[in-house]
Amino acid sequence: MSILIDQNTRLLVHGITGRQGMFHTEKMLAYGTNVVGGITPGKGGQWVHGVPVFNTAQKAMEATGANCSMISVPARFAADSMYEAADAGIPLIICLTEGIPVQDMIEVRAYLDRLGVRLVGPNCPGLITPGKPGRAGMSGTKVGITPGSIVMPGRAGIVSRSGTLTYEVIYALTSRGIGQSTCIGIGGDPIIGSNFIDVLRMFEEDPETDRVVIIGEIGGNDEQLAAAYISKSMTKPVAAFIAGRTAPPGRRMGHAGAIVEGASGTAEAKIEALEAVGVKVADHPEQIVELIS
Amino acid sequence: MSILIDQNTRLLVHGITGRQGMFHTEKMLAYGTNVVGGITPGKGGQWVHGVPVFNTAQKAMEATGANCSMISVPARFAADSMYEAADAGIPLIICLTEGIPVQDMIEVRAYLDRLGVRLVGPNCPGLITPGKPGRAGMSGTKVGITPGSIVMPGRAGIVSRSGTLTYEVIYALTSRGIGQSTCIGIGGDPIIGSNFIDVLRMFEEDPETDRVVIIGEIGGNDEQLAAAYISKSMTKPVAAFIAGRTAPPGRRMGHAGAIVEGASGTAEAKIEALEAVGVKVADHPEQIVELIS
Amino acid sequence: MNLHEYQAKWLFAQHGVPIPKGKVATTGSQARSIARELGGRVVVKSQVLTGGRGKAGGVKLANDPDEAESIANQILGLDIKGYTVRKVLVDEAANIRDEIYLAILIDRSRRLPMMMASAAGGMDIEQVAAETPEKIFRIHIDPMIGLRSYQSTYVASGMDLPPKLWREFHIITTGLFDAFRAVDASLAEINPLVVTGENGLLAVDGKLSIDDNALFRHPELAEMRDVDEETESEREARQYGLSYIQLDGNIGCMVNGAGLAMATMDVIKLYGGEPANFLDIGGGATTESVTAALRIILADAKVKAVLFNIFGGIVRGDEVANGIVEALKQIGSDIPMVVRLLGTNAEEGLQILADANMATATTLTEAAQKAVALA
Amino acid sequence: MNLHEYQAKWLFAQHGVPIPKGKVATTGSQARSIARELGGRVVVKSQVLTGGRGKAGGVKLANDPDEAESIANQILGLDIKGYTVRKVLVDEAANIRDEIYLAILIDRSRRLPMMMASAAGGMDIEQVAAETPEKIFRIHIDPMIGLRSYQSTYVASGMDLPPKLWREFHIITTGLFDAFRAVDASLAEINPLVVTGENGLLAVDGKLSIDDNALFRHPELAEMRDVDEETESEREARQYGLSYIQLDGNIGCMVNGAGLAMATMDVIKLYGGEPANFLDIGGGATTESVTAALRIILADAKVKAVLFNIFGGIVRGDEVANGIVEALKQIGSDIPMVVRLLGTNAEEGLQILADANMATATTLTEAAQKAVALA
Description:
The complex is a heterotetramer, with 2 copies of chain A (293 residues) and 2 copies of chain C (375 residues).
Chain A: E1 11-14, H1 19-31, E2 35-39, E3 47-48, E4 51-54, H2 57-64, E5 68-71, H3 75-87, E6 92-95, H4 102-115, E7 118-120, E8 126-129, E9 141-144, E10 153-160, H5 164-175, E11 180-185, H6 196-205, E12 211-217, H7 222-233, E13 238-243, H8 267-276, E14 280-281, H9 288-292
Parallel strand pairs in A: 1-2, 1-5, 2-4, 5-6, 6-7, 10-11, 10-12, 12-13, 13-14
Antiparallel strand pairs in A: 3-4, 8-9, 8-11
Helix pairs in contact in A: 3-4, 6-7, 7-8
Chain C: H1 5-14, E1 22-25, H2 28-37, E2 42-46, E3 59-62, H3 65-75, E4 79-80, E5 83-84, E6 88-92, E7 96-107, E8 112-118, H4 125-131, E9 136-140, H5 149-158, H6 166-182, E10 185-196, E11 201-203, E12 206-210, H7 219-222, H8 232-239, E13 243-246, E14 251-255, H9 258-270, E15 277-280, H10 287-298, E16 305-312, H11 317-331, E17 337-343, H12 346-355, E18 359-361, H13 364-374
Parallel strand pairs in C: 14-16, 16-17, 17-18
Antiparallel strand pairs in C: 1-6, 2-3, 2-6, 4-5, 7-8, 7-10, 8-9, 10-11, 10-12, 13-15
């Protein structure tokens, strides 16, 4: 019915006593997410919106049997939190934190790969699986910060390197009655956990997704790799938007990963690669609605 | 017919232009080992006893298609040579070098494990598979420094943490007409590549080995682990000798790994564990002959 | 964040990389006395954070202290690609026999640090890569283990460096990687690494880019930032935590979120306009950040219209609208502005803006078309 | 190689571990002036490379400089388990509220560095492990990543350390691991790590064992070796690259190979004798190494017989025999000796020895029995 998260998700929030952590924990609980615990060293024993706080992930795991971690801690502590979640046996980590040093992420990613832990992000809005109000036990689940108010249940999978640009697209789809199976932000950093291909594969296999929207941007060559994968392995229709046609080369456009270095990082190169394999690429975000209808 | 090495072994010698490297290359060639290349940075293009020397393992691999590396370089370069062999795609590394820092070996071993590369040693005499003079294409193969003069072909597998003590046992066996399938020194360091269990498993599976001799010593608990394995999985008879009954606690007896720390490291504890699973343990090395006959 | 050549080389030297003797001068007479100290024959090199200094006349050889002074006077104050030269590095001139290119950077697709080297040093590496790719060696480095000696040997032997230089080459590659790690670099480059007439190796030019995200753990590097090289607007943006990049167009944009900011620029261009900047105000969109952002946008004299594009997800649209109205009151401007709000309480927000006589839009297309028309 | 307490603590301090103020004294009057400098109340601690100093009267509290002097005079020259006290460390006395045990060592079976900690500090950790194993925390450290903050938190919270000390505890654990890595330690221990009355943490005692195999890359540590703590024989053996350990028996042994040397000792014991030493002369067995080894063995007045056990694999038996005969000529001794040679050219070697009127043997059993009879 969705990818990665659903009603079986038992979530730990790392950094739950922080301002952001508390705010989004409340939003996630309200949306129906099963937040089973939070972690803040030194604040074990406290409660946040009815959720117990632990000093360490290991203690939280023993008490709650969690299966997913959301990292919402300052950048300087984020690598440690990811190692902690992985070592505690969490199989899925969603890291929202922006501004983690690249060299930290190289080591974290290599470590998580070795342990077989799936990472989404960092520097991402997380995931949301809209609830299906008419069906019992089918309330929505979100891990992250995507506003629950803009999504609606449906059969389009959304995968994006961006935050508000994704909301823009989701909003446009919802406004036109096109619901979503799962919306996932994979993050705007140069080194991320899950890339387009990883998510496309999951959407391809998800029986409740029948079409997919990719929202890419300048920098790296993840969109080109996605194009190759789509050509080889995707049966479901895919539409795309690529941000940054007007971005000057060599400058970081906000996201640490959004920088044109060499020919493959340009929006043009990405659009060309996607169109070459039959993906319809929108000229502006709102046009996605027409291309995917 | 043997374990790990045989006539299909295509050997690279790291440190071939050193005094030890040259000497043992000559001995290995004389014994029938297929030494296909050597490595010494800066001496690529030279020849040692008819063997071509290369600057890097990668170049040596391209030219020779080697499948085994013997490391005979000074301790400070040994870790680098092991990484080099592994990265070049060598599946089996025999490291003779003594005196490698433990913290280097922790990292090397973890790296090789990740790549699926088998390591024997370090601080070991290597392996020897005695030739069977009467059979075509069945000349002997040795990788290391065990004297070819003391072995004879046969069906006893020898595995040891020691050097000359192993020769002592081999000599005694050969003197009494008990030949060997393969003799392997696993090394006297605290962190080694292959342990007793690894080798026992290979001997158990080797159709040309029908009994096994273990030569252990104080330090660590590898002999205890071996005992547990023997009890569970070995069908072939095993005899053992454990050196160091008279060694004082807390002192390193020559080998970096031969130190009694805690109760499990004593010779008594090891002998007890082996005898408890039916392994005959000799009182002195020469007695092995009676126990294994 | 990019460091100056002299900063980069001095950091490399701290990790064992041999560099020429040299000092920084801000006047011709300083350059003269440095040249005298160094024995006469020196290279005077402009220190600006851009490439192509040589072609722009910013790097010159001086044969004696007099010449060093006059060359320094020529170079100081020079404009190189919009940057004014305020400092020169006066380096002992090297006896150059061969030139090597050597760099360590992040290979994003392999997710590893990578060493690149080529015997065709001194040249533009992208040109070498395009014309003679076989001359470039690429070595991936396991960050957990570090650069290994055999990897240096592989490159040194591949470049046909004389074997007696291999050990020194390894010290330099290791030092460069150590520096790369120690300062959280995204690029550490030596170009050229010179083989001298005396058969040594010398890092004659250096480049070092630091991962901005890692500056929190390198306060000493953050202090090396040359604020003279920033525009006033860039400096102010950095202080307020805004992502701002000035461009050549005339439509200023203020957007929350980097991807949406890029998309907004793209849509302006799609409908015939030219964006004046990239500006991401981040998640908050408070009165304070909106005010700072607006001041920065309006400081650009080319700006003829401003487009706000705010997605009210967590922030409510009415809050954002109030912030914009408040910011405008504080700043005051005749430049026409179009505000597009979306998401939570967008309608209430648009009403607030309409009441303040601002042009509004609900779709991005509509907003862009209005802005283009107004500019 | 073991370091003294003061050396260990100073190395820990270089990595951010807080230690008491203190200095080393070799005389009572030095101890007095250090105590005065530190404000009076001090602990005077013998610096010898053995445990159990406290029980032996080698660690005492002094309330003022006078007392520090008299205590130092008592302790200096004391014999503790065979070691003469030549130095004392005079440390500011700590205000002790709680004591923690903290160590990093190599876990051989997991092949990883391991941190051990217990709230039952000050006590013998092996005793704690035996009696209350649940009080000991064991944390394995991935050397490629290092000790992580959450691992310290896990231990600190498990030990019920007050949360406001967790950050400081993490700085200490990280510093201890950094020191462990930096000096190639096999053991880095703080016992006790004190929670002071002022609510801080303080490493009051320290122990550091260095991996001898890694000393080549730490020349500064090799120089810290306290040669006063070695016997003359140990020093000479180290110089000649021999592995030598003195024991209490009366049959000296000289063997090539560590395993064979242990086995030789075992066989001597099996036949009723007592080995006087462990001695591995290594692979060579040259005249020079044999001579040095024999000198070391004979320097032990308890030795009543010597057993040589040489496996001639690569070395030829006749060469070894000539070496032994030559060494004996140089040294000259009435102590009876038995030589056992095996392997290549063993017969020729035994003939040479017999011609020199030495007792010989072909099996180890025979050799041991002869040596026991002669001792």
